[in-house]
Amino acid sequence: MNIIFKNESFRDDYSFKNSIESIRRFPFPFAEDNYMYSVNIEPHVKGNKNSVYEYNFDIDEHYISECNDKRMTLAEDPKRYESLPHMLEAQWDFLELTMNSLSQDYPEYFSLKKNEDEWTWENKLLEIKDTFIFGDSASISMEPFEYMGRQVQGDFVLLDQRNNTLYADAGFVTSQADWSLAFDLGMSWQEWHGPVPQVTELGIMDRALKYLLSLQQSNPVRRLNWTMTIHPRLDTSPENYPFWGADRNKINYSNVGELVYLRVELQTLFRLPKSNCILFAIRCYLINLNEINSFPRWSKRLHRVLKNLHPDLIEYKGLTKFNSTVVSWLSQFDDGEIINKGT
Ligand code: HEM
Q1: Which of 8, 38, 239, 272 could disulfide-link 15, Cβ–Cβ 3.0 to 4.6 Å?
Q2: Which three-class secondary structure state does DSSP give residue 69?
Q3: pLDDT at res. 35
């Protein structure tokens, strides 16, 4: 894809917009008219050309502006990046995986030259060029996880595997759907998933954990998760709730198409070779209801999913204040017919 990078904002005047190409490749997450949590994990294999699944880490037209937004969020709140001392090896794993992937997949934007342990990394989009010694933290300007976390779209958690579970022992989290790294740091799988409704009854978390504990190197996996956000805001963190929470009260029938965004997370998990930790990457895609309506099958389907959504999920995902307005607005596009792929 020939990417034309945008200069846009995810806060204040919210100038973010998707091009037609971005709408076309949006990872619309609903394959059925109903939605409930499930162990929706599949191999993270190379997908179609230009799709969000084409490469390990997807770079799109929002790359430069999203990296700027990360920088602003971190400047205001340095605790969005944290790493416990025993995670240094996993940090270098992360740097290696992301540098190798980006330079192989997007050679026009990123390059990596290796002279034994002396590596030179160039990121043409952010105008960065650095030489450092792989594995020597003193040779690089910041911790390796933070260094590359700033240069790849999305959020990242490094999970340490011990005691038959996973621990969130390091994270770079600036675009999360209302959860806090500072709060969850050091927690186990069972602890950080504690607030999620319905999943214990469905047995989902135990099965997903079992699957991940045996995750193999070179066989990454992925899943989609979703919620809804008002405005194209990346940083919907609990820490900054005062800046975005009240926006949920301003949705009405005339502004719903413009202001309500479907927020889809492409979550990928990679076993890291040296540390045996797991990288959990969360890549956020935003699309508003008007844009969703470019594909009539999407607005129909979203209408049905939201209309039938379990009340616990409406509440947990923070949709209570505006879901009925969204459903009523979307209903005008739903003729009740069965949805065919081509419509
Ligand atoms: C929330 C499932 C992996 C961190 C959730 C939710 C589900 C879920 C269903 C509720 C989301 C919503 O309704 O918006 C899974 C499954 C996984 C997985 C099936 C297996 C691949 C992970 C990993 C992390 C993680 C590896 C690493 C940190 C979280 C957090 C929340 C969450 C922080 C929000 C919890 C809160 O409300 O505080 N997960 N998850 N998940 N998940 Fe996962």
Answers
A1: 8
A2: helix
A3: 98
Mean pLDDT, residues 204-213 taken together: 96
DSSP string, 135-161: T-GGGSSS-HHHHHHTTSSSEEEEEEE
Give the count of domains, the chain.
Answer: 1
Backbone angles phi, psi at 78, to 5 degrees: -60, -15
Q: Quick check: is 223 catalytic?
A: yes
- Residue 337 lies inside a defined structural domain of this protein: no
Nearest to 168 by CA among 63, 17, 57, 269: 269
What value of ipTM does the predicted structure carry? Answer: 0.95
Phi, psi of 101 (to 5 degrees): -65, -50
Answer yes or no: is 180 within a domain.
Answer: yes
| 129 domain residue, yes or no | yes
Report the separation in Å between the CA atom of 163 and the middle of ligand 1, taken as the mean of its atom positions: 20
How far is residue 304's CA from residue 315's CA, in Å, rounded to a whole number?
A: 17
| Averaged pLDDT of the chain | 97
| Distance from the first to the final alpha carbon of the chain | 25
pLDDT of res. 340 = 79
Range of the domain at 179: 37-240+264-287
- Of these residues, 71, 223, 233, 271, which one is catalytic? 223
Residues with CB under 6 A from ligand 1: 37, 39, 41, 157, 159, 168, 179, 184, 192-193, 195-196, 199, 204, 208, 223, 225, 227, 269, 280, 316-317
